[in-house]
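In the design runs reported in the main text, the only information available to the sequence generator was the tokenized backbone. The following block is the verbatim input for one such run; it is reproduced so that readers can re-run the procedure and compare outputs position by position.
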């Protein structure tokens, strides 16, 4: 028994997957492809994706922004959780990665729910705000370059509606957030973001130690 978060070893994590994961064949194929690549570690964990999909259904989200698409696994899982008229604005700057994503979105017949913007995400978010889309989105999932987390968060907070959810990935950064010897730009940026979110009273928060750490912020 434990009154703190359980330390999940490999065997226990495999049990969690074996007893709870419901990955579609396209999702599984995409994960297998990612696992064969050097950058595959950028994909979120499947149990984490399933958790976000459940949140999407719980709040009956219809409009989502994803900042950082990579090869589209998280996008695919989120799209599957949306109703047929739902929409994801997917932001990334890498054509090679998102070409892989597009292929799998088509295979899963969810490509009509996803609009891909190949541009710096801050520019895409600014354009959405300037085009009158403030308070229009249900969920924003932030999982891109860490030094811009605060920039994405502020824009995301403008774009989600009251009651909307901001999900931020990698907030534990492999545990490096507590290694004071690590003063790299990414680690410092994540520490700064975490400290900022802790005292931001515009949102209700929870840091969920799933995957590499997922912070949830609900706009008041
Ligand atoms: Ca990530």
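Verbatim output:
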């Amino acid at each position: 028994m434990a009154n703190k978060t359980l330390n999940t070893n490999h065997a226990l994590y495999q049990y969690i997957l074996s007893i709870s994961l419901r990955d579609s064949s396209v999702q599984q194929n995409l994960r297998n492809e990612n696992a064969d690549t050097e950058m595959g570690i950028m994909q979120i964990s499947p149990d984490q994706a399933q958790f976000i999909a459940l949140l999407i259904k719980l709040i009956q989200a219809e409009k989502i922004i994803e900042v950082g698409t990579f090869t589209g696994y998280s996008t695919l899982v989120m799209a599957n959780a949306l109703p047929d008229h739902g929409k994801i604005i997917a932001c990334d700057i890498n054509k090679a990665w998102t070409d892989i994503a597009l292929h799998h979105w088509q295979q899963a017949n969810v490509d009509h729910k996803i609009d891909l913007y190949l541009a710096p995400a801050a520019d895409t978010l600014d354009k959405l705000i300037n085009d009158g889309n403030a308070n229009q989105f249900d969920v924003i999932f932030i999982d891109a370059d860490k030094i811009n987390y605060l920039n994405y968060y502020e824009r995301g907070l403008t774009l989600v509606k009251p009651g909307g959810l901001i999900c931020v990935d990698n907030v534990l950064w492999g545990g490096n957030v507590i290694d004071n010897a690590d003063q790299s730009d990414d680690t410092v940026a994540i520490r700064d973001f975490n400290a900022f979110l802790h005292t931001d009273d515009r949102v209700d928060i929870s840091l969920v130690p799933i995957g590499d750490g997922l912070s949830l912020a609900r706009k008041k």
